[in-house]
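Weekly puzzle thread! Below is a chain. First person to post its structure in token form gets bragging rights.
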Amino acid sequence: MSTLFAINFRRDAHRRELAQTRARAAALGAWLAYFGALAIVIGLDALNGHSLAQRVRLLEAQIQRAGSVRPPAAAWTPPPAEVQRVEAALENPGRWRARLERLAAALPPGAMLTTLAVNPDNVSGASEQDRLVLTGLLPPAAGEDRMQGIMRVLTGLRGDSLLAAQYRVIKLVESRSGGPGTPAEFRIEFRR
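Winning reply:
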């Protein structure tokens, strides 16, 4: 007698075994992926550390070579005049604040400063050290010549008691006026 088909009475058990095998394979794959990624990260970190150690050795060798080629530079000591100038500037930082407040008060409401420079040419002479140069714009007032407005600014700056006490010479160095309706440019210099 031949059997055409066979009934497997253990089919449910077989399916459970297959599901458990698949679950174990998936868990094993997840653990392998985790530890593989961890091994890659640790490996890259080790390569980075090795590269950094090589770079440090190279730089240390370059520093030693550079140190042996030339003698170390002598310590810089500033001249006494420079030290006194820095000490004077550090003694009274409020002096510049007072100057700037007085400048703001002395300028007419429409005037605008574009630059403010102390010793702009970086000259080392004592008379040039405290030279102050202002550059600004003055919009035209209705019915007034632009030069009159600039002279009013100059007169206001000369009339300020604090600025006049700190600077002997306050003069207009340059003035330019463009077309109608454009602001006039001025440059004023303060000298001790």
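Puzzle host: Confirmed. Bonus trivia for everyone else. The radius of gyration is 41 Å.
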